[in-house]
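Why show two proteins at once? Because comparison is the fastest way to build intuition. When a single record is shown, students tend to memorize it. When two are placed side by side, the eye starts asking what differs. So, the first record is below.
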Amino acid sequence: AALLAGGDISTRRDYAIDGLHHAHLPTDRLGPARNSGILIMAGPGVKAGASAAGNVWTPDAAATLTRLLGKRSLRQSEGRVLEDILEPKATT
């Protein structure tokens, strides 16, 4: 109740009280809270200082790591390879 008394958090959302994240989009915001994360990549095959264009989703990170490891993605996998952060030799 003390958390809600500050007025920063709406009681219209379930996770305002119980912390649920699975029922909300990754871009959802509730006062100061977000469901977003940060992806930082460095090492062989990754351009120094590069930034990915647009949003990066968890399946994108998996697809990009698969490419960097020189493996083929599974047919049923989702996500895009973040070509804009990879060195040209890593994308061939």
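Second record. Ask yourself what differs from the first in the token line.
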Amino acid sequence: MPQRLKVLISAYACEPGKGSEPEVGWQWCLQMARFHDITVLTRSNNREAIEAAVAAMPLDPAPPTFIYFDGGEFELWWKATYKLHRLYYIWWQRAVRRIIHDLCKDKQFDLLHHVTFAGYRYITGIWGHSVPSIWGPIGGMESIDRRLLPYTHVRELAIELFRNLNNFIQSNPTATFPARSKQSSMTIVSTRETQKCLNEWQLPSVLMPTIGLTMEDFPERARYDVTDKRPLRLLFVGQLIWLKGVDLAVSALSQSGTDATLQFIGSGPFRASLEKQAKKLGLGERVSFSPRIPRSQVMQELYNYDVFLFPSLHDSGGFAVLEAMVSGLPVICLDLGGPAISVVDDCGFRVAAASRNKVISEIADKIRYYDQNRDAVEAHGKNARSQVTKNYNWKHKGEEMNELYHRVCSAANLPQRANMTKTT
């Protein structure tokens, strides 16, 4: 029987039913509790939702044990007042390092695992405790091609230039990123761009997307006849912000030469700009907008569309893409970040980063292809669901991570304990 390890998971963001990073933290903790004795260190802010969910869980296998920590009134005040969330995260990681030190002495963990936040840029409290450690899956080395930078948007340009500069600095072998990877027994990365950086330094890593889905929540449903000759329906779901490439989507629709329609579901500061862009391009009612709606409603809406359009310029994950794929929609995305790993051949199209005009032209070409080949919409949609079922099912991902846990601990020559327990 495989050995049940004693594992501490650091998951700053960890909350059921919230999506994004909190869902990532929550799911990794649940999955690993299937195989091991899991203790989770997370924020006190997550406690109410976690305890309600744990109370409804079966006792076999044993759910994770949660330890909660947050700052005092002063730290929480400046975090909320000045919206210094990232600075608070750094403070939190420094503060929990002492907690982890004490827990390691008390519980004698076999393994420490940092899960969230899933970005390489920040410190984590798991290092320096003389215990094997796993960092990740982490991402963040996705830089925007200079030809696609937002030169007409000063604020966004400044943000992306700073991000690109930071990534350039971290591509130096003497930077903090490689140093942090060296402190970890294993580094798991969620994007090819992040792995490429480590490869250049001859530092080993494992490529594994950080996101997944619980397939039981997405039963296969019959779709309408996509070959019906009506305008192709395109859908975007997400924040209406520049880095999501929303302006590229509108321009591509105009260039496609089709009568396809594009629905945006989401809120953000770029909505007014998109409305003006659509009007200027003469798209009229072919581009429509819906404010952010609950995830359950989005899941229902997905079945009313043909193709998911997601030209994001840097997304290490991309939950919206997975949810569209599992609902049977092919995806048009850029060949960047997490979506580039999810959207494999024959379940959508990946458009290479190039000049703005070239990217828009390529996206327009893919829209035109699906408009003229409705059978491909159906076939690629079925392949998209199969891709998610095979590679993004949380249960399967848990099994993969379990193998990595044992690989790390075997390499560390951990002594075998007597408490061997059946896994589920």
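One difference worth noting in the second protein: The first helix runs from residue 20 to 33.
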